[in-house]
Specification:
Blueprint lengths: L4 E7 L4 E7 L5 E5 L4 E3 L4 E3 L1 H12 L3 E6 L11 H8 L2 E5 L2 H11 L15 E3 L4 E4 L2 E7 L8 E5 L2 E3 L21 H12 L6 E3 L15 E3 H7 L9 H12 L8 H8 L24
Parallel strand pairs: 3-6, 6-7, 7-8, 12-13
Antiparallel strand pairs: 1-2, 2-3, 4-5, 9-10, 10-11, 11-12, 13-14
Helix pairs in contact: 1-2, 4-6
């Protein structure tokens, strides 16, 4: 199986891992789940995290073909359009972004000017769609449950699962956001478990399970099947749904959900500037 080079970048303020994935033969590459730094207190954005990835791509002599988000993130703002503006590549996400845009377009009262057809992106991946990063074969798998638009990208022997799975000692994604569903997540994970055991699994987040002192971002399908504390090979679907639903009811809302979703549903672009030249984020009261 083809083996891409994978470089991880960690944003500790949001516990997010972003990746540069490269074909060592052609030096073509993809960026997955980039982060735009955002200070919720001041409302200021920075590009430090994205610039670290950009500097790496340039230093390695890579040519960027894809700028991918695995889903509409609720815990960080995407830097995808900024990365694209510097390095090129196609801005891409799963085609079910339309469902997320429809739901949150209403929640944020985005108005008729906000297109709910995914047209903010250059490419919308379909389930099972095959594409390439350089000469390495890749496939996009629709793995919803955390959100309706979640995709797992299998690039050679590497699977980028977004928030669907965490390290085996930490478990699985929450399913209580609008459009999320624990039963759907269980079935999506079963699809991931059909990949070869040796498939490398790269995670979007880690929060250090109790007893573990370091952040981790990589595991394998085999390790997830054998040891995931929430769902492993042979786990009962009803037990998982019951566990996930009970656990989700105790979780607080992600700190950056409101700013993140209204930016990320626009492909990482800020809401349109108002007549004073300033862009504003909305906080819907008593809604979520």
């Amino acid at each position: 199986m083809q083996r891409p080079e994978v470089k991880a970048f960690f944003d500790e303020s949001t516990n997010t891992f972003s990746y540069v994935v490269a074909d060592p033969a052609t030096r073509k590459a993809a960026v997955i789940d980039s982060v735009l730094d955002y200070d919720a207190v001041s409302g200021r954005t920075r590009r430090d995290s994205a610039n670290a990835m950009i500097d790496f791509v340039k230093a390695q002599g890579l040519e960027l073909e894809w700028v991918i988000d695995t889903h509409v993130h609720a815990d960080h703002l995407s830097a995808a359009p900024y990365v694209q503006s510097v390095l090129g590549g196609k801005l891409a996400i799963g085609e079910h972004i339309r469902e997320v845009q429809e739901t949150f377009g209403k929640i944020f009262n985005a108005g008729a000017a906000f297109q709910r057809d995914g047209s903010q992106f250059d490419h919308l991946f379909k389930d099972g769609e095959r594409y390439r990063v350089g000469g390495i074969e890749a496939v996009a798998m629709h793995t919803p449950g955390h959100t309706p638009a979640c995709m797992t990208h299998v690039i050679g022997d590497a699977a980028f699962v977004g928030d669907t799975l965490f390290m085996p000692d930490y478990g699985t994604a929450r399913c209580d956001f609008p459009g999320g569903d624990a039963r759907t997540l269980y079935r999506s994970i079963q699809r991931i478990f059909t990949l070869p055991d040796e498939t490398r699994v790269f995670l979007c987040h880690d929060y250090k399970a109790p007893g573990r002192d370091v952040f981790s971002h990589e595991t394998t399908v085999g390790d997830e099947c054998r040891a995931n504390i929430h769902v492993r090979a042979g786990s009962d679907e009803e037990d998982f749904v019951r566990m996930r639903s009970t656990r989700d009811a105790t979780l607080p809302m992600p700190r950056l959900l409101l700013p993140a979703v209204q930016v990320n549903m626009r492909a990482g672009r800020l809401p349109p500037s108002e007549d004073n030249g300033t862009s504003y984020l909305k906080i819907p009261l008593d809604t979520l």
